[in-house]
Amino acid sequence: MLAIENYLILSAILFAIGTIGVLTRRNAIVIFMCIELMLNAVNLTFIAFSRHLGNIDGQVFVFFVMTVAAAEAAVGLALMIAFFKNRESIDVEDVNLMKL
Fold this sequence. Notes:
The chain has 100 residues and is mainly α.
């Protein structure tokens, strides 16, 4: 069985990759996937602490986070489709043009 430190290190690496992706990418879909990666890193931390402490509360909280993430994905993808139909691009720098 792996120690909790291994799970936390993996979670920190995944969160860092997601953060770098959000800060450096311009494609909305890639940014969206990086945000989901960050959410999954946090979920991994909740599961690791829940297992380490022998408490099921963290696992229950992960189910709620996954439900909210699924709703966020549906709304986010719908917004991206609407934006693509309007501008023929999903570059985040083009979002400012929606004000016109």
